[in-house]
Design brief:
CATH class: Alpha Beta
Number of helices: 7
CATH topology: Aminopeptidase
Strand content: 15-25%
Strand order of the largest sheet: 1-3-2-6-9-7-8
Low-confidence stretches: none
Distance between the termini: 48 Å
Mean pLDDT: 95
Radius of gyration: 17 Å
CATH superfamily: Zn-dependent exopeptidases
Number of strands: 9
Number of domains: 1
CATH architecture: 3-Layer(aba) Sandwich
Largest sheet: 7 strands, mixed
């Protein structure tokens, strides 16, 4: 069976929205060290390997927003599609206290193999979705761990990330602030600006509206939770887009 580095859902949907899940899977393709990064199954099921729950939220949002969805089919530890092609963290050798043996001595040839088989096909497909119409909007769905090892607990349920073009992000945050039960991270738990990342490559460089949403992964572990969050967020996202367009 031929390895497929990404999956698309609803590619013919008509709205402005394109929904991406850069870290959707913890798959390790067979060509990478026989399909084994050398870490435990427990670690492969942690946030270090993929964004828990993000794929389910993204797919449901695509249905509700009538936009296509793209989900990666390789672990972020294989290669991180949400990094620029020259980013030193493209191929992580240590993450949240875990050494990645299959990456520890990976050199330029290994990196190029993963770029060719995983990274570039994913970005080519995302580019095709974003160029299917003149006014696309990129919605990138991620999740974050409630606590990194040795660090304080993170207080947010949801983070809204953005870089220089924060039009949609600011409109969404204004709407989310009315949701009194939420603690909202303003460019938290990470900064929304990484030169060459997926949002930069497919939205910022072309002047397209964009927002990256981070959901705390213990809130989206189950299919029911994923659908509930998507159903909550979809009308708020539509309102935010309407506010920016208006």
């Amino acid at each position: 069976m031929t390895y497929q580095p990404f999956f698309e859902f609803g590619a013919t949907r008509k709205s402005r929205w394109t929904v991406s899940s850069d870290h959707a899977a913890n798959t390790v393709p067979a060509f990478v060290n026989g399909g084994d990064l050398g870490i435990s199954a427990q670690d492969m099921n942690r946030h270090i390997a993929y964004d828990i729950g993000a794929a389910g939220v993204a797919q449901e949002l695509g249905v509700l927003l009538d936009g296509p969805v793209i989900c990666s089919n390789f672990s972020r530890l294989v290669i991180d599609p949400n990094r620029g092609s020259d980013d030193p963290t493209l191929l992580m050798k240590l993450y949240d206290g875990t050494i990645i043996p299959a990456n520890r001595h990976a050199g330029p040839e290994e990196l190029e193999e993963r770029m060719a088989a995983c990274y570039r096909p994913y970005h080519t497909a995302l580019s095709a979705l974003m160029t299917r119409r003149d006014d696309p909007v990129l919605l990138s769905i991620h999740s974050f761990t409630p606590q990194l090892k040795g660090r304080p607990k993170r207080p947010w349920e949801i983070g809204v990330l953005y870089a220089d073009d924060d039009r949609l992000a600011q409109a969404l945050m204004e709407i989310l602030k009315a949701e009194k039960d939420l603690s909202i991270g303003d460019n938290e738990p990470y900064s929304g600006h990484l030169p060459g990342d997926a949002v930069d490559t497919h939205a910022l460089r072309h002047g397209h509206l964009n927002v990256l949403i981070e959901l705390r992964n213990d809130l989206i572990e189950t299919e029911a939770q994923q659908k509930a969050w998507a159903q909550r967020l979809a009308p708020l996202l539509e309102r935010a887009l309407s506010d920016v367009v208006a």
